[in-house]
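Exercise: predict the fold of this chain.
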Amino acid sequence: MTGIREFTVPTKVRYGFGAAKTIGALSKEVGSRSALIVTDPGLVKAGLLRTISSMLEEEGITFSCYDQVEPNPSIENVEACFAIYQQYKPDVVIGLGGGSSIDTAKAVAVLATNGGHIVDYEGYNKVTRPKKTVIAIPTTAGTGSEVTASSVITDRQRQIKMAVISFNVIPEYALVDPELTLSVPPALTASTGMDALTHAIESYVSKEAIPQSEAFALHAIRLISRSLRRAVFDGDSREARGDMMMGSLLAGMAFAVSKLGNVHAMAHPLGGVFNIPHGIANAVLLPYVMKFNALACPEKFADIAAAMGADVTGLTPREAALKAVALVRELNADIGIPDNLGCLGVTTAALDKLCEDTMRSGNVLINPRKTTVQDIRKLYQDAIAGAF
């Protein structure tokens, strides 16, 4: 590492079983008298919206709600939610749900103080004014959006997932409560968990990694690797759910500093063109990209293998690095993640657009192995065909 790098974790995090129950008290502490809750239909059906809103009511805080966030949140979601914000002008915006709801809440909070349209802020550091206060309450162990500087929104017209990235996007508060994940079904636990593992692995090997982010990322890999299977197959395990929530949080803190790599650069176009859930896209692509990257920094991949529980004693760095790839493939298979993109409906007919959109991502530039558009095309082709 050369040069001077900044390291900041600005979000005030309350972590632990029952942390979400402090939402009313926290809202009151920050001087809020009204709130906009941003969530999705599934959490309304599960009764979680009512639980959170009742806690606000107990503290005398009024609330409005936007509950139509989609799995890949769109510009239309942001605009509809912002219309509700403009009607009620609440003091805080509460993102309740997975990364989709939290990213939508962050986008609306940006518009609340910066004006314009969300597409105006696509890219890096275009949000010049502090946003409206955001309290993030994640209900999945996956995105780490509660502590990151990005909001990823789908532009259906361009068929891309655009990112709004700025220090001013980071939530001010996060209530990280593993209890909220106890009822998450196995398939969603699997996909969001692999999303978190992808964050941790890509962060650890990123060219932008620093010692602090590496420490967060490596511990996240340990926690997720030891507990994801149990969280999928024994969802009532509080220990496993706690490990996964902390692993997701740490991975988010890591990549907020280091950014990511080719997996995310490739996964976002898959969401924009084929509407594939982000966690699934990441999980399928991860071993292909790891294999591509492994020989660029084998010692780091050897660290990943060890963190995932492998005995690397006596192995060369190359052998240990490839062991990490094998362990991720094994984990995917165990928890029901497909081993190729073809079965998800991805075809080679879309390769030109997928490659073009991937190469627009800044993540390619900090991937540990220098990557050309021909490399990306080959990675997509292999992942579509399942040619590992």
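Check your answer against the key: The CA atoms of residues 45 and 120 lie 34 Å apart.
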